[in-house]
Write a structure and sequence with these properties.
Length: about 200
């Protein structure tokens, strides 16, 4: 009969291996926890991915484009005219829409003869809104006259002939706005930061 004798050196080596496995596992665990601690708040409170569906914002945003939404900026300043925003559809909050802000709180918005008119403190008689981002020759259909409340915005799609927007569901409340479009992540040839709101002829 033979006996297998484990030397103290062998036991020490085995213990060291177990320690190394434990240390490696612990390091991986810490990396995962720290990553989640960073990623989750960013994902749920700072930025949010958004997938464009439909043609309502063409030619500036196309179907199937992948966007990143800035959710934190509007905690420090109010939405501006021309901002591209993502919001909860007022008639079904489970759905998210993307549109452009054209009317600000306490303004009067009129749609007459294919043109948007804005009446506010600096334009008491009303003035047509120049919209350089619209396709040439495209007009805004419909006949609307609405005065916005202190926390309401009027939003329209850039593709005015194929957009479900404030002409249909009315003004948007501030609480329904999720954030503004910050970055286009797909397709590759259109990746890039979304510029600031355009300069308007109306303050």
């Amino acid at each position: 009969m033979s006996l297998f004798h484990r030397s103290p050196r062998h036991l020490a080596d085995k213990l060291t291996m177990r320690q190394q496995v434990f240390i490696f596992t612990w390091e991986i665990f810490k990396v995962v926890v720290i990553s989640l601690a960073i990623i989750l708040p960013v994902r749920y409170f700072l930025i949010k991915p958004f997938y464009v569906k439909g043609a309502s914002m063409e030619p500036n945003f196309y179907d199937h484009e992948y966007l990143i939404i800035d959710e934190i900026s509007y905690r420090f300043f109010e939405p501006q005219r021309g901002d591209i925003v993502v919001f909860r559809y007022p008639q079904d909050p489970r759905q998210y829409f993307i549109k452009r802000i054209v009317g600000l709180p306490n303004e009067q918005v009129k749609l007459i003869g294919g043109t948007v008119y804005i009446t506010n403190a600096t334009n008491p008689d009303g003035a047509p809104l120049a919209e350089p981002y619209l396709p040439e020759g495209l007009s805004t259909s419909g006949s609307v006259e609405v005065t916005l409340g202190a926390d309401q915005y009027y939003v329209l799609g850039d593709n005015r002939t194929s957009s479900l927007d404030s002409r249909a569901f009315g003004p948007l409340s501030r609480s329904e706005v999720v954030g503004r479009v910050l970055w286009r992540g797909w397709p590759v040839e259109r990746i890039g930061l979304i510029g600031q709101a355009p300069e308007y002829n109306i303050p």
